[in-house]
Write a structure and sequence with these properties.
There is one protein chain. This protein has 381 residues and is an alpha/beta fold. It has eleven helices and twelve strands. The chain folds into two domains: 134 residues, Aspartate Aminotransferase, domain 1; 233 residues, Aspartate Aminotransferase, domain 2, CATH 3.40.640. Helix 1 runs antiparallel to helix 8, helix 3 packs across helix 4 and helix 9 packs parallel to helix 11. The structure holds pyridoxal-5'-phosphate. Pyridoxal-5'-phosphate (PLP) binds next to helix 3.
């Protein structure tokens, strides 16, 4: 029997075991996707594009029009000095992340992740024989511990990965923190991945800040974002990466030889999502998230034994369950079987023990009913 590559044998499963579709009577607080349909005009644009015959091979990096519009948007909204030439449209942000690790790191390099981190960073690093180094964030607010990051840097450190607004914690880093994180990357000559996929879902008084927009940032920052979370387009698999030209040229070769490009007709759908009229739909999504976030905060506050730092962005609450005396896997397993509510145990992520992740992207009634079930279950034990 021929073996598979050793590094794939014991790859961690991440949060997958708790993402399985539960029975119909279970409330699902696990899936990290907007609880809305894709706006209709985007759907129509894809269908029209297919009818118009956009079914052939095309520009590998993405159509010129899409790359140009995407660059303008990054520039206008976030002051990221993106150009048409340093954008690649990828099959989801996930693939853009994998490309970035592949292009910027050598096997054996250390990659600093701020723990608890979205699990795919760790798993992608392992697939490429990179060493993920998990540096815990501050437990009271999930913001980065700058001193701990500095202490974790060795001569093998090649990259620092940041994700603000954050999955799983909901933290949004302050402009001062982003500036200091970039300073660390500059001082130690590191690549900085800035995963900004939740940039539009920010509930703080400070605006989203990309390190690529700061002085000396663009030359070492690789910005990752995509259409999934802002436009309710998770299943479409459309992401974007923008970075320094050396990185983007290598990545162009990588994408050309890995998948050629995203489906040609989806480029027109991606363009339709950038039309100003879609801003109304996005504003409506955001209003709903703000209401749901408040329901979650009030609900958790009212349940004895649970507490949660204020979720500042994305659509996740990271709830402290330590006072219940259960570890997070026991808590989530019992919540599933006894209260019929599905959530992610933080203990599946490095640095996340003592917490469970709740996605409040589900509708309001589901949220209220789930909180009620958890309250009743906990008071009965
Ligand atoms: C932090 C983070 N980055 C990237 C992704 C991947 O997004 P995409 O759907 O574009 O692959 C996700 C999806 O859950 C995410 O939470």
């Amino acid at each position: 029997m021929v073996d598979i590559a050793e590094r794939f044998v014991d790859l961690p499963a991440g949060i997958k075991p708790f993402l399985a579709a539960p029975p119909a009577d279970v409330i699902r607080w696990t899936v990290g996707e907007p609880g809305f349909d894709t706006p209709q005009s985007i759907v129509e644009a894809a269908i029209e594009s297919l009818r118009a015959g956009n079914t052939k091979y095309t520009r590998s990096e993405g159509s010129l029009e899409l790359c140009e519009k995407s660059a303008n948007r990054l520039h206008q909204r976030y002051k990221i000095p993106a150009t048409t030439e340093n954008i690649i449209i990828t099959p989801g942000a996930k693939q853009a992340l994998l490309y970035t690790f592949m292009v910027c790191c050598e096997p054996g390099d250390e990659v600093i992740l701020l723990a608890p981190a979205w699990p795919s960073y760790d798993i992608q690093c392992r697939m490429l024989e990179l060493n993920p180094i998990h540096v815990p964030v501050n437990k009271n607010n999930f913001h980065p511990n700058l001193e701990a990051i500095k202490s974790a840097i060795t001569e093998k450190t090649k990259m620092l990965v940041i994700n603000s607004p954050n999955n799983p914690t909901g933290a949004v880093y302050t402009p001062e923190e982003i500036t200091k994180l970039l300073d660390i990357a500059k001082k130690h000559d590191l690549w900085l991945i800035s995963d900004e996929i939740y940039a539009r879902l920010n509930w703080t008084e400070w605006d989203h800040l990309s390190p690529a927009s700061l002085e000396g940032g663009a030359e070492r920052t690789i910005v990752i974002t995509g259409w999934s979370k802002s436009f309710a387009m998770t299943g479409w698999r459309i992401g974007l990466v923008s970075g320094p030209s050396t990185v983007m040229q290598a990545m162009g070769k990588l994408q050309a030889n890995a998948c050629s490009h995203i489906p040609s007709f989806l480029m027109d759908a991606a363009l339709a999502a950038l039309e100003p009229k879609i801003d109304d739909a996005v504003a409506e999504f955001k209003r709903s998230y703000i209401t749901r976030r408040q329901i979650l905060m009030d609900g958790i506050d009212a349940i004895e034994g649970l507490s949660m730092p204020e979720p500042e962005g994305a659509f996740y609450g990271f709830v402290d369950i330590t006072k219940t005396g259960m570890d997070s896997t026991t808590f989530a397993t019992k919540a599933l079987t006894d209260a019929k509510v599905q959530m992610i145990p933080g203990g599946l992520l490095d640095g996340g023990e003592g917490f469970v992740r709740i996605s409040y992207a589900c509708d309001e009634n589901t949220l209220i009913e789930g909180l009620d079930r958890i309250a009743k279950w906990l008071s009965s034990i």
